[in-house]
Amino acid sequence: MEITIVGTGCAKCKKLEEIAREAVGDIKVDAVIKKMSDINEIAKTGILMTPGLIIDGKVKSTGKVPSKAEVTKIITASM
Questions:
Q1: Is residue 58 within 8 Å of 6, Cβ to Cβ?
Q2: Do 26 and 73 meet the contact criterion of CB atoms below 8 Å apart?
Q3: What is the pLDDT of residues 29-79, one digit of tens each?
Q4: Is the predicted pLDDT of residue 9 greater than 90, yes or no?
Q5: Residues 61, 52 contacting (CB under 8 angstroms)
Q6: Of the candidates 11, 13, 29, 48, which lies 20 to 30 Å from 62 by C-alpha distance?
């Protein structure tokens, strides 16, 4: 599983990365977590508001920091 955190490095983007790492650790899923911060690459995803969460190439969340429970649910549903 590939999880991409989309954002320019703001506090919300960092928080989403932290939550995603915790969720992956809690459910013990084999995942690679990447960051996408290049504005041109972000534009290609269609995400207009950061932070964004992409799992295996599919946008799952934009414009907010979901709770760890929400991120866990999103990851589990994507497996």
A1: no
A2: no
A3: 999 999 999 999 999 999 999 999 999 999 999 999 999 999 999 999 999
A4: no
A5: yes
A6: 29
Whether residue 65 contacts residue 12, with contact meaning beta carbons closer than 8 Å, is answered with yes
- What per-residue confidence (pLDDT) applies to 32? 97
The domain locations on the chain are 10-78
**Cβ–Cβ under 8 Å, residues 19 and 71:** yes
Task: Give tens-digit pLDDT for 10-19.
Answer: 999 999 999 9
Among residues 25, 38, 28, which one has the least CA distance to residue 4?
38
The DSSP symbol for 59 reads E
Q: Tell the CATH topology of 10-78.
A: Glutaredoxin (3.40.30)
Active site residues: 10, 13
